[in-house]
Fold this protein.
Amino acid sequence: MLPYEQARRTVIENVEKGKGPRVTADISVWNALGFILAEEIKTDREYPPFHRSTRDGYAVRAAAVTSGATLRCVAEIKAGDTVAQPLAPASCVQIMTGAAVPEGADAVVMIEHTTRNGDSVRFDRTAQAGQNIVPRGSEAQRNQTILRPGARLGYAELALSAQVGATQLRCAAKPRIAILSTGDEVVAVDQQPGAFQIRNSNSVSLAAQVRLAGGEPVLLGNAADRVDDLREKISRGLREDVLVLSGGVSMGKYDLVETVLKDLGAGFYFDAVAIRPGKPAVFGKCQNTFVFGLPGNPVSTMVTFELFVVPAIDLLSGAAARDLPLVEARLAAGLNEKPGLTHFLPARVEWRGTTPEVKSVPWQGSGDIAALASANCFLVVAADRGQVNVGETMPILLRKDII
Ligand code: AMP
Ligand code: MG
């Protein structure tokens, strides 16, 4: 049985090896949030394109401004403007934030450090050359590469593209992730379940996780625990880049997913991971499609998706596999878990002071979705830990979807 870090590496190595050329599309900068860039973006000019004032105040020659100096204000420059004349000796120009500093001026003095009397401006401290000016070209040169293929487009990357006039962005097409739940007890979420049936909540969480990870969910519904139905629906899923199954990978008499996958020609890279929840998780390749068989208990499905499916989607999108969002937090209540497996316990982290404090939430095990909905992270209890005391520092895995 693999430790989860090794299982992740197995996913990353195999998906890296097995991916072909990606389809691309031009996406408007307004719609490209979460896409992965498939081209270089270069600047169209220098940034800033002019010596930019970062303050409202007076553009001056620094050498002329000592404490108590007085200069004549000869003009005003609004943002979007400058003045044609170089700054004359013994004069200054009123300037606004974002405006172009005129030739001859090498400093901007904040208005707060001046007293105005008609045309005359008195300065109450000495100016330093360069102060409150961002020099032309200091952020980027002209034709400089500012974003590369593989960049994940978040709000700053989109703004940067927009800034340089790149409003249509060549992006990698999102990998298509087939989602198939299994189980005789499972009914569609818009159906009324019988007394011993359950709604297909896993397809909903998986679709959300696929979207958050940057994939395109392809919903295949639910397969009964029967070879014929599994075979037909799995075969349909094998047309996509990745097939994610929930349920049917444990040791029960009706857990037939692995058998059917094998019949269809699958090879497995692992079929168990040393974690709880999520131990029976399976990863393999079948007819050129990567396949994940995730255990059906909802929290197991969610945890194993975050650990193993997200890096596959990253790579198939043309990005690097992201690291897990693990951070350290101080334990606010002791823990006593059975050693042997790495535990992922639903927990709540709060940032009251400088150190985050974390506490596991009460839960009934891996079927307890309500517990996870009251949590914002997982406490990661290493396989050799078991007992952990209040005040100890522990790694937590953040739920990036809500934090
Ligand atoms: P399995 O991994 O097939 O043994 O499923 C374990 C348990 O997870 C089942 O007994 C159900 O309670 C639950 N489960 C399985 N599939 C789903 C699903 N699609 N949505 C919600 N819960 C599920
Ligand atoms: Mg089942």
